[in-house]
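Predict structure. Chain length: 410.
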Amino acid sequence: MPISPGLVQFCNCRILYHGEILREDFWVRNGKIMNPEKLFYDEKVTAEKQIDCDNMLIVPGYIDVQINGGFGYDFSSNIEVFSEGLDVVSKGLLQHGVTSFCPTLVTSPVNVYRQVLPKLKRRPGGKHGAEIIGAHCEGPFINCKKKGAHDESYIKTDVSDGLDSFINTYGSLENVSIITVAPEIPGINDCIKQLVEKNIVVSIGHSMGNLTDGEKSVCNGASFITHLFNAMLPFHHRDPGIVGVLTSLITPKQAFYGLISDGIHTHPTALRIAQRSHPKGIVLITDAIAALGLPPGEHKLGTMDLVIDDKVARIKGTDTLAGSISSMDKCVRHFKKGAGCGVVEAIEAATLHPAQMLVITDRKGTLDHDTDADFIFLDDNLAVHATFIAGEPVWINENSPMAKLNNFYK
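Prediction complete.
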């Protein structure tokens, strides 16, 4: 059989495919995942390279849809070095298996949105860093009583101008993929409809809303819940609040929901309750801040001063949690242990589900044929050994058996 230039065959591996872990070879060419049947029977070709994977598990690259910064940079405050910070975070995420992400802006002054959002253009990933798949604007249309680490000075609750309320705040919606709003804000449901028509995912959170508020928003097009359990009313047996949306019988479809499984924000019992209630809706998020990858000390989140101590981030001078300092690979491992779920369920919560929520499964979140060849190598402990984007290695653990990949990609 003739050799197909650029065709790579990964052998002696296990792959996550359609909800199962299969022992099969994995084929990649020109940045895409290939169908071996077509290669054998239609093209009748063989691979240019064959790589022994030492029984590693190959899974889709992780997708983080809520991350505020990392490695010393905060997307909402380091404006003067924003582009530099974005590049540093994009590249730093590769070691944690993240191949795509949504840079997240917390509630900020209008001038920050106007300066930052134009710089958050969608861009493909590579050795320079993970792919940017659009910004997540977490606020300012939220409830002051559940502001969390958001600066109350810049929170807005007037949406009387409809979609223009958002455009006048952000300047443009062109680079925005997700917007978090409080579902109880008067008039917000008309805005949700308009935002969804613009192909923007609307998430509900930072809210004092009850179950009815949440259900109305989902019926009007909201499809995500921002960090379930955090910055919302707690579950109550007479009104379960937004948490109750997970099992609603009146919404046209069940909403996806974010979970911060860092061992700090969400108790393992809460992880289990959520996972058992709506297992197909879990989207693991890091909600990471600038202190991701840094030692303890003082850092920034938007306009707020934070203190990192003993793996916990809090607003300076308070007990209020202020985002996570956990990486996505750690969140996946912690979720598997805390929720008591299987490997497939844990990985799909960071791959398939966020892609489904963003409606990008034609390109991301699976190992389906003809999708982007963004994938990672994991061992049985779910530690990341190598990260690939568009079929090329972008990060390799030099202490891993997969360091041999360096010999194949020179």
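Summary: The mean pLDDT is 95.
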